[in-house]
Amino acid sequence: MKLGIILQSNKSEHAWNTFRLGITALKANHQVEIFLMSEGSELDTIPDTKDFDVSAKVAEFKELKGKIYACGTCLKVRGKEENKICPVATMSDLLKMIESSDKVLVFG
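Predicted structure:
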């Protein structure tokens, strides 16, 4: 199965759970793409907390060959550019992810 996940939150717990699900799906031999939109495009600045090790989950997700993309417009609105976590993407890229996914989930 191909799973498309849209993360629209910059809350540590939301991001943590998004990547936990992605990791679980990848370990079950599914394909997973995560698209960062709205506040989710701030992923590189979401702090780790005692309970939610977001950066460790992102690293594990990437090691398992999960794909992450960030909305370029959402980044621009926030005065940000491409970051080291993922490439910049467009609405057309999001549409392609949705069209090619068997299931699409939204967190946030």
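Summary: The mean pLDDT is 96.
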